[in-house]
Specification:
Number of helices: 6
Number of domains: 1
CATH class: Mainly Beta
Shape: globular
CATH superfamily: q2cbj1_9rhob like domain
Largest sheet: 7 strands, antiparallel
Structural class: alpha+beta
CATH architecture: Sandwich
Length: about 270
């Protein structure tokens, strides 16, 4: 009997397109439907417990307080999308729920994730899975990317200027001279579909003034060969698949880490968040 051959979730052509363009749209279901509905239920409970003074766009690193999220973060359906890009030894760097409420969802200014991670990840090879929990459409502020900016121009480290924190999720934005907004691509997704993007690509999103909420869960993965900085108690990384190749220390996915959240709250509480 011939051994069963498991086809990769991404074709070689898709991986090539991701490396060339810096992003890829996966316009088919990511998780089994029942599993996806379980994730949505879990998210709604987390959202309902969010303190009134905190914006729903700023639900950064929720897995530190809700280890139940690893049921989905480490699901084969997600890791199998990442493996063709980073290899079979995978680390989870971070996650973030970015939930734009209907009517007054804040704008995400143009930025590169790598600009916030400089000195934390070496080499800067991070792939983000942007999993749509709601429809993510042009009308309700879906993500936009400027293709190829991960490997052209400033290559992930543009200059920034301040923006109004009352209207934007982040407090600064890539200066106009370092980006070409006319090349933007709107990344529209249906629930349980996803996009993948390089941590160095320029991206952002417009405010949500529609009657439709827009929520996505971003999961940031790297090869375990990447070396992480000493986060001095304000961050943790996790071994998602395979083995360590970089001499890193990994957190326990069965535990909550309120002390990490406390350390982040003392210094970087949802400022320049992932």
């Amino acid at each position: 009997m011939k051994p069963t051959v498991i086809e990769p979730r991404l074709t070689s052509q898709q991986v090539e397109a991701y490396r060339r363009d810096g992003y890829l749209i996966h316009d088919k279901p990511v998780l089994p439907q029942e599993k996806f509905l379980g994730l949505k239920t879990c998210f709604e409970k987390i959202l309902a417990d969010l303190p009134a003074e905190e914006r729903p766009e700023a639900m950064d690193v929720p897995h530190f307080m809700h280890p139940e999220l690893f049921e989905w973060a480490f699901h084969d359906a997600i890791l199998d999308l990442v493996e063709p890009i980073v290899g079979s030894n995978i680390a989870l760097f971070s996650t973030h729920f970015i939930c734009k409420p209907k009517g007054n969802g804040r704008r995400v200014p143009w930025h590169e994730d790598s600009a916030y991670w400089k000195g934390q990840v070496d080499p800067m090879e991070v792939v983000t899975v942007w999993l749509a929990l709601d429809p993510s459409l042009k009308q309700n502020g879906c993500m936009m990317v400027i293709p190829c900016t991960h490997r052209t121009g400033r290559r992930g480290f543009s200059d920034y200027s301040n923006v109004d924190p009352a209207k934007n999720v982040f407090v600064n934005e890539i200066i106009q001279e370092h980006r070409d907004d006319s090349r933007r691509v709107y990344v529209e997704l249906q629930p349980n579909h996803c996009s993948l993007h390089d941590g160095r690509i320029q991206h952002g999103s417009e405010p949500n003034t529609s009657t439709l909420r827009r929520c996505g869960w971003t999961l940031r993965f790297t090869s375990t060969a990447v070396k992480f900085a000493d986060f001095k108690g304000a961050h943790q990384v996790y071994l998602a698949r395979g083995r360590d190749l970089g001499g890193n220390i990994y957190a326990d996915p069965t535990k909550a880490y309120p002390e990490v959240m406390a350390a982040r709250g003392a210094s970087t509480r949802y400022k320049n968040s992932h």
